[in-house]
Every structure is written in structure tokens, then in C-alpha cells.
Amino acid sequence: MADESTESSDAPLLRTLSPTALSSPLSSSASSISDATPNPKRRRRALALRSVAFIASIVGALGAGSVTVFSLYGHLFQSRLHYSQFQINGIASTMNIAMYLPVPIIGYMCDRFGPGLLSFVSAVLAGGGYTLAATLYRKGVQEVEGHAAGHRTTFAPMLLAFVAIGTGTACLYLASITTCAKNFGKGKYRGLMLVAPIAAFGLSGMIISQAASRLLYETQPDGTKGDVNVFRFFLFIAILFIVIGIIGTFALQIVDEKDLIDEAVEELERSGLLESSEVFRRRADRGYGTIQSTSIGDENEDSDARDTLRDNESDMYAKLKKAWLLNAETRTFLADPTMWLFALSFWLIIGPGESFINNLGTVIGTLTSPNTYSKPPSAATHVSIMATVSTVARVVVASLSDLLSPTPESQHIQTGNPHSLPVLRRKLQISRVVLYVVSALVFSGGSLVLASGVVQEHAGRFWIVSSLIGAGYGAVFSLTPIIITMIWGVENFGTNFGIIALTPALGSVIWGIIYSAVYQAGVRNSVSLEDEGTGEDVFCYGKQCYVPTFWAMTVSIWIGASMIVWAWKGKNGWSSRGIVI
To answer: The whole model's pTM is what?
Structure first.
């Protein structure tokens, strides 16, 4: 009687669900194609789809990485458009907010509707945003050169353009890494496969900055190369996003997602975490129920019609099961106190990094007094150094994570339950938390060098700062999604990573404001160049322009490193709960 009651109460659920509730596809048509199938043709097709998706994710991350070269043209907003340091940081912070704030929603959409849709959205938003920014930049230069009354009318719409750029970049980046996380969640080198698009994102800064400085440059009166031609650069990036976004719409697919969801449900049932999933298992055992009672029992009905009805209900059931599982895992993720400690750690560390990247050009400008005849180093050079070192660090820590850290053989959420799947252990084991803390300390080393003032009037030493910060920032950013997949699984990765990635938005704004305030205060005490046409002093020179900011950043990074240690070894931390990390 109990079983009959359960079945009768559950059957109407599938009948009464609205089309909207069940319209979410399983990411793509490839979700039913398994590379574990005994059919060689289907296995080859699944492998081909995974390979194409992997290549598309790398290309997508390379395109999304164009956002990291803000320092390449940020200082030109100051010298050509006469924006103040607060306005420049306002644009950078707005872009970062738009890149991080909607990420939980973007991740939710990616998990439920697939990465292909996000790739198309990125083509529209980022492509349109860069096109608008190019138009506004040209208009702003014309206003300044023409000494137009009330110039700087471009600032407000420029903010809007960078909102679109930030959101579009987030869509493409998250679509790329989610594709790799879900398609390569199994295997010995899952961390390296996940970090591949993350490393490409970092490498993109070097490639794009060097290409722009060599191909899209302004010509000086003496015929030498000058700064990047911002108008042409923005148009180039706009076209790049549109092309990559359209390609990714069709190429970014999750292969074998039905099996991924089924395995996750079985694993969590075995752990005792999801007892209510029994209703889905019973429905599967009896052939999806509603078809048996309404269609299959009719002996005279056409067999093709019966097959169609059976397939339709099977799809409805699979979509319902997926939505139910992902919602349950989201609740588990949000209810985990260690997740919030981890998010706080990420915020305290990445916030300073985002601010440094956005202000690298103006930081370099403070290092050399205008009374000296030495030319300050190129911002493009140090953007390239940061990007190259960051890329190497991402690959190295991902490889160390795969080779030295203990790894659960399951790609699903860890419950710490003794009945969970076994763990792949190494002879020499180094926790990913240790790698994360070491990376943060390397990051703080670069910040500490700058805070000490030893680079002032010795701009040739700045490579030490850009290298250490690039290495630490890149390593922390690559270890974060790896830790998320190891502890909370891959099936809900987009949503989980989106929630964690929300925190740098606030950090970027806070540190951008702090840096701008210290910079503007330093203007009054430094030898400044007068801004022609406005009579405003907008340039700062000397240690007072940045030292207080970077001392505070260094302390923030140290606190952030301690937060993840607390999540690992503290009360009810990962270690005490039997979580392998």
C-alpha cells in the first residue's frame, strides 16, 4: 500500500509539470552519447565531440583572457580622455563587478542549459560592448582635442560598455572551464585538463598584449612605435569575441551527461545523503510509469507512437532528475560552513590581484620621477611577464595537484562517508591546501616588494613584482576550481564555482577605491605634470602613491591564506570530516 501511494502521488508530478519547467536541455544532444558504450562508432563519435569541445574551450578561454590587458590601455584613458584615477578605477571596477557579480546566475544557466548558450550570449554582449567602447573612445579623443566644452561625456556610456564586456567575458570563460570540468571529471589528470582553459586565459594576456603592441600601435611623429591604438584594438577584440562565441555555440558540448547525473544520484544514495531519490529509482525500474498505464497497455496502438511517447517521458524524467539533483547539491554547497571560509579566503587574496592587474600601468608611472630622463618600462611588457609567469604557474600547480595530492576516484561530491568510493593515494602526498597557501605567500611576496619601496626610482626591478604576483595569482586562481570539483563534485560545477567567484567582485571594488584614494592623496605631495587643457593635476609620482595600499594588500593575502587552513584543519573542517583534498 505504501508503494502504491507513493507511485500514485508521484505520477501526476510528471504529467502536470509545465513545459517551462522541463524545457532545460541536458546541455546538448551529445549528452546521450557515451564514450563508454560498446559500440565503436558511437565511442569514436563521443571521443571526437570531447576533443572538439576541449579545443573550443581553449580557444574560448584565450578570447576571454583579453579582459586581463586593461593595463595596456587604462593609462590612455587618463592621458587621452582626461579621466581621473577614480574614473579609471570606476571603469575597471565596473567591469570586474559585471564579470563576477552575475557569475552565480551564469553558472546556474550553464549547468541547466549548457555552455553553448553562454557562448552565444558572450558573442552578443562582449562583441557589442567592445564595439561601443571603440566608438566612445574615438569620440572622447575628438572632444579633448577640440577642447569641447563639458567634455568627458563619454564616461557614463563607457561604464555601460564595460558592463557588457565583463558579463560577456564571464559567460565565455565559465562556459569553457565548465565544459572541461564535466567532460574530463574522471581520470588521473583531471586537474590538468580543468586548468587547461584557465591557463589559456592567463596566456591570452601575453599573446594579446604583444600582438597589440606590435600590430595595433600608434605611430609617433618620428616614425617609431607608440602606445596601442585603442580604437583599432577594441574593434579587433569585438570581432574576436563574435567569431569565438558563435563557434562555441555549437562546439561547447557536455558528452555523456545523463550517465554523469545517474552516477551522482547513485553515489549520494549510497552515502545516505539523498534518501528521497528512491522515488526516481522506482520510476526508472518500472519503465517511467505513466507510459505503461496510458500507452503501452493499448495493444492496437502504433509501435512508432509508443516509442515516441516512451522517449518523451524518458526525456522528461531525465530533465526532472537532473534539476532535482542540481538543486539538492546547491543547497548542500550553501549549507557547508567550510565553503564560506573558502570563499572568504578567495576574496581576501584575489581582490588585491584584480586591483594590481587593473592599475599596473599607473603603478609603473609612479616609479620614475618626471625630472629624470629614464624612460619607464612598458606596461605591455609587464602585462606579458605577468601573463607568461601566471600561465606557467597554473600548469605547474595543476600538475602537482594531479601527481602529488590525494584524489577521490569519484568525480561527485565528497560526503566523508566511509561507504564512499575509494581514494587514489600517492606515496608522497601534498594537500592541495598546502599548494594553495604556498601560492598565496608567493603572491604576497610580490606585494611586499612593492610595499617596501625598493622599486622606487629603480623601475628595472619591477619585473620581480610582476613575476611574483603573476605566479601567485595564477596558481591560486587555478587551484580554486580544482578544489571545488574535488570536494563538491563536477555535475553542479558551474553554479558552485559561480558562487565562489562572486567574492572577487567586492574585493576588486574595495581595493580599487583604496588604491585610487591613496593615489589621489599622493598627487598633492608629488611632483606632478599639469594636465593640459584642464589645469588639473592627475599624475602621481613617488612611494606615497602606492606603498600604503600594498602594505594593506599584503596583510589581506596573509589573512586569506589562514582562512583556508582553518577550513581544512579547523573544527568540522575538511580533515576532520574525512574529505580528501
So the answer is: 0.78
